[in-house]
Design a protein that fits this description.
Largest sheet: 5 strands, antiparallel
Helix content: 10-25%
Bound molecules: guanosine-5'-monophosphate
CATH class: Alpha Beta
CATH architecture: 2-Layer Sandwich
Number of helices: 3
Number of domains: 1
Order of helices and strands: HEEEHEHE
CATH superfamily: HIT-like
Distance between the termini: 29 Å
Number of strands: 5
Radius of gyration: 14 Å
Structural class: alpha+beta
Strand content: 15-25%
């Protein structure tokens, strides 16, 4: 897959607030937050879309979700709640083609859909 803005964030080549990092995942605040908390969790292994993750590698996506839950607990919004979203391709509005999990929290969130 091609280089994206998230590679530059991972390498600290452009400024961003990285809030979480482990051997497999890094996370940073979204530049255009849609909720009081809006953080993106990205695997260190590259995949452009969810369609590109091998069927027998569910840990790639699972680690994003468990890292998000750990972050929610650490930051104190796990009990109130949060939403995780992954957009895939055009109809979902994916704009950065490097898979990432949105974590939205900090206020009651409206429901969404078409
Ligand atoms: P998508 O629409 O692909 O699901 O989400 C991409 C997200 O990346 C958007 O919410 C957008 O605001 C965020 N984003 C795009 N460019 C940057 C950037 O340079 N820095 C940060 N922190 N977030 C970005």
């Amino acid at each position: 897959m091609s280089e994206t803005i998230f590679h530059k964030i991972k390498r600290r080549e452009i400024p961003s607030e990285i809030v979480y990092e482990d051997d497999h995942v890094f996370a940073f605040r979204d530049i255009a937050p849609q909720a009081p908390v809006h953080v993106l969790f990205v695997p260190k292994q590259d995949f452009a879309t969810l369609n590109d993750v091998p069927f027998d590698s569910p840990e790639i996506v699972g680690r994003l979700a468990t890292a998000a839950a750990a972050y929610a607990k650490k930051e104190g919004f796990a009990e109130r709640g949060y939403r995780i979203v992954m957009n895939c391709n055009e109809d979902a509005g994916q704009t950065v083609f490097q898979i990432h999990l949105h974590v939205l929290a900090g206020a009651p969130l409206g429901h969404f859909g078409a």
